[in-house]
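Listing S7. Sequence submitted for prediction.
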Amino acid sequence: MGTTYKMMGDRQHSAKKFKEASSLFRQTRDPRGEIYCMLGLGELQYLKDNKKNAKQTFLRSLQVAESYGFKVEKGYAKKLLRAYDSGKGLPLNFP
């Protein structure tokens, strides 16, 4: 739901849904889900012109993905960092 709201431009609802989901993923000890929430929240930070925090969030998600050996999520984090560095291409709609 967070990604859907993000892609529709409803940043407020998007942030709320990512935070709710992140809490549930922490409760169920699902680091992969938490990574996706971090990526989505990082994009929202970027879109709100909080670019410094966005990059930190992307880097943190990359670090977590690497620590668990999650190759797909690592790739997504790297893709977001490349988009960040190029200054274009955000938001992304990951499957």
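Caption to Listing S7: primary sequence and predicted structure tokens for the chain studied. The mean pLDDT is 93. The CA atoms of residues 2 and 53 lie 19 Å apart.
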